[in-house]
Write a structure and sequence with these properties.
16 strands; globular; 4-stranded antiparallel β-sheet; alpha+beta; 19 helices; 537 residues; 4-stranded mixed β-sheet
Length: 537
C-alpha cells in the first residue's frame, strides 16, 4: 500500500496482519466430481456430503495457527475439510511463492501481489480465471462488502480482457478515513457556536484560535492548523478540496484524467494558504514537521484544527479500541471535545479530503490447476466467506466458543471467561485469532466485537461524513509514471511550500505548470489517459 508519509504509523496500528499468504495445493485432497461439490444453494457454507474431507492447506505466517483450535475444529466439521498448514514468515513468503512457481509446483492460492506483480503472474499463465458467478454465489457477503466501497463493479481493478483472476482485497477504512477536526472546546471559548462549514468560516475560526487565547494561558502560543510538510497529498488537503484540486492523485473529469497539482483550483488553494501563513494561522513549522511533531503539537494543546483519521477523534472504545487522541486530550482537559467534518465548502460548493484507493493490492489468486477443480476453488471461497463474514465461524476462529471461552459484556464487547481471560490460557486452548485468508477485513463487522455498543452509532455517523476522493489509477501499472513520480512529487512539494510561505510569488504558477509538464508530466498524463480508456472508461 502506498503510504502517506507521516500517516504510516496510523496505518500500521489499524491494519490487521494481511501480507502475502498462500496455500499449497498439488496434493489434491478433494474430489472434483459433482458428487463431492459443495451445496449449490447461494452462499451456503454447509456441506452435506459423505465423501472424505477435502484437504486444504493454509500458510501460517506468524506461528499462531493451531489445527486443534475451537475455530478450526468447528470449520472442518462445518465444511467437511481437513485443514493443514505450512509455516514460514511474512518476509519469506513472496520468495517461497516465486520458487514454487519456478519449479512448476503451483500452489492452490496466494494473496495480495502488487498490481504490477499481478500482471506479471498473468503473463506467466500460473493463475486461474475465477468465474464471477461463483464468487457471487458462494461469497455473497464478501461481494456485498466490496460493493459498499468499490461500487457496482467491484472487480474492475482485477479484470483483464474481460476476465478476473483475483478476489479483490481492500482496506475499506482507507477510502473515507481522513477527516478535518476542530477543537470544539476552543470554538466555544472564542464564541463560535457551530462547526465551520465553509472556507470563510474556517478562516474565521483559525484566526480566533491564533489571536483569542483559546487555551486561556494568557499567551499567543496557539495556531489554527498544522500539517506535515513532507507529503503533498496530505498537506492541508481540505483547502485544495474546497477548490476541487487534489495534488498527486489521478482523477477523472468529463472523461479526461487530471492531476490536481496543475489545475487552476490548486492556485486558488495556494492563495488561501499563503494568506493564512502570512496571518500566522498556520504553524510555521509545518515545513519541517514529521508525523510525531504533528501529534506532539495536537496533544500538547497548541493546534485548533487538524486532518487525521476520524477514529482518532473519538473515544478508543467507539471503534478500534486502545487509547486514541481523544482519550489523551480528554484526560488532560475534561471540557475537551473534537468537532469533525469531511471538509469545508469552497466558493463553488466543492469540498473533500484526498483519501486512499482501498484497492491497495490485487487480491487472492488461485493456481491454474483449480480451473479444472472448481469444487476445490469453491471450498476455499466458502472458507473465506465463513471465517471473515459469518458470525459463528468468525467468533469461533477469533474468540473460541461462546459460553465456554467468552461472553458479551454489558457494553456489547467480547469478554473472555476465566481462565481464558488470561492470554496464556487462551494460547493453550488455541484461541489465537488466526485468519485463514488474512484478508477481507470488514471493519464495520469486526469492530462490532471490540467497540462499545453505545458508541457504535457515533462511529458510524462520524465515518459517514468523509469524502471518497481517491486516485482512481492507483491499482494499475504505470511505467512512465513510476519513472517520473519522485521528481514530479518533490518538485511540486517544494514549489508549493515556496508559494505558501511567500518565497515564490503565485504569479509564477503558470511557469510551475509548464515546468511540471516539461519534466515528464505531459507523458505521465498521456499514459494515465490511455490506462483509464482501456480499463475504466
Amino acid at each position: 500500500m502506498k503510504k502517506k508519509g507521516w500517516l504510516s504509523l496510523a496505518l500500521a496500528i489499524v491494519l490487521t496482519a494481511t501480507l502475502l499468504s498462500a496455500c499449497s495445493g498439488n496434493n489434491n485432497g478433494g474430489n472434483s466430481s459433482p458428487s463431492a461439490s459443495p451445496s449449490n444453494s447461494a452462499g451456503s457454507s454447509e456441506i452435506a456430503s459423505p465423501e472424505a474431507p477435502m484437504k486444504l492447506t493454509f500458510w501460517d505466517l506468524d506461528g499462531t495457527a493451531v489445527k486443534s483450535s475451537p475455530g478450526v475444529t468447528a470449520l472442518q466439521q462445518k465444511l467437511n475439510i481437513e485443514v493443514d498448514y505450512i509455516s514460514t514468515t511474512r518476509e519469506a513468503m513472496k520468495e517461497k511463492l516465486n520458487l514454487m512457481l519456478a519449479s512448476n509446483d503451483i500452489p492452490d492460492w496466494w494473496k495480495e501481489p502488487s498490481f504490477p506483480d499481478y500482471d506479471k503472474l498473468l503473463q506467466q499463465s500460473v493463475a486461474a480465471e475465477i468465474p464471477q458467478e461463483l464468487v457471487e454465489q458462494y461469497m455473497p457477503k464478501y461481494v456485498a462488502w466490496l460493493k459498499r466501497y468499490l461500487g457496482d463493479d467491484p472487480f474492475q481493478y482485477v479484470r483483464r480482457e474481460g476476465k478476473i483472476y483475483a478476489l479483490p482485497v481492500i482496506w475499506d477504512i482507507g477510502i473515507d478515513g481522513l477527516q478535518l477536526a476542530f477543537r470544539e472546546d476552543w470554538l466555544k471559548k472564542v464564541g463560535i457556536a457551530k462547526t465551520p462549514e465553509t472556507l470563510e468560516e474556517m478562516e474565521e475560526a483559525l484566526t480566533k484560535f491564533r489571536n483569542d487565547d483559546p487555551d486561556g494561558n494568557g499567551q499567543k502560543d496557539t495556531y489554527g492548523i498544522t500539517s506535515a510538510g513532507d507529503n503533498i497529498e496530505s498537506m492541508m488537503s481540505t483547502v485544495f478540496g474546497a477548490f476541487d484540486a487534489y495534488p498527486n492523485i489521478f482523477r477523472e473529469k468529463d472523461g479526461k484524467i487530471v492531476r490536481g497539482d496543475i489545475e487552476p483550483g490548486a492556485k486558488q488553494a495556494l492563495e488561501v494558504l499563503n494568506r493564512w501563513y502570512k496571518n500566522e494561522l498556520i504553524d510555521p513549522e509545518f515545513v519541517v514537521n514529521k508525523g510525531n511533531n504533528v501529534e506532539d503539537k495536537v496533544l500538547g494543546g497548541k493546534i485548533g484544527a487538524i486532518e487525521f483519521y476520524w477514529w482518532a477523534f473519538l473515544p478508543g472504545s467507539a471503534f478500534l479500541g486502545g487509547e486514541q487522541w481523544y482519550d489523551k486530550l480528554k484526560a488532560q482537559n475534561p471540557d475537551f471535545a473534537f468537532a469533525t467534518t469531511g471538509g469545508v465548502k469552497g466558493p463553488d460548493g466543492n469540498w473533500g479530503i484526498s483519501q486512499y484507493n482501498p484497492a491497495f493490492a490485487s487480491g487472492v489468486m488461485f493456481g491454474k490447476q483449480l480451473e479444472q477443480d472448481q469444487a476445490k476453488m469453491i471450498r476455499y471461497m466458502q472458507v473465506f466467506e465463513a471465517t471473515q463474514f459469518e458470525p459463528d465461524s468468525y467468533e469461533a476462529m477469533n474468540f473460541g466458543i461462546e459460553g465456554t471461552h467468552w461472553k458479551r459484556s454489558d457494553k456489547g464487547t467480547i469478554e473472555f471467561l476465566p481462565p481464558y481471560d488470561n492470554e496464556d490460557e487462551r494460547k493453550k486452548a488455541g484461541i489465537v485469532a488466526y485468519s485463514m485468508a488474512g484478508s477481507f477485513n470488514d471493519y464495520d463487522f469486526q469492530t462490532s466485537y471490540t467497540s462499545d455498543e453505545s458508541l457504535r452509532q457515533l462511529a458510524k455517523d462520524t465515518r459517514a461524513q468523509g469524502s471518497r476522493v481517491i486516485d482512481i489509477l492507483a491499482p494499475f501499472s504505470k511505467p512512465i509514471y513510476n519513472e517520473n513520480q519522485d521528481k514530479l512529487k518533490q518538485f511540486t512539494l517544494t514549489t508549493y511550500i515556496d508559494f505558501i510561505t511567500g518565497r515564490k510569488s503565485l504569479n509564477e504558477f503558470d511557469g510551475f505548470v509548464a515546468e511540471w509538464k516539461k519534466m515528464g508530466g505531459d507523458k505521465v498524463l498521456e499514459e494515465a489517459q490511455q490506462i483509464y480508456d482501456q480499463y475504466l472508461k
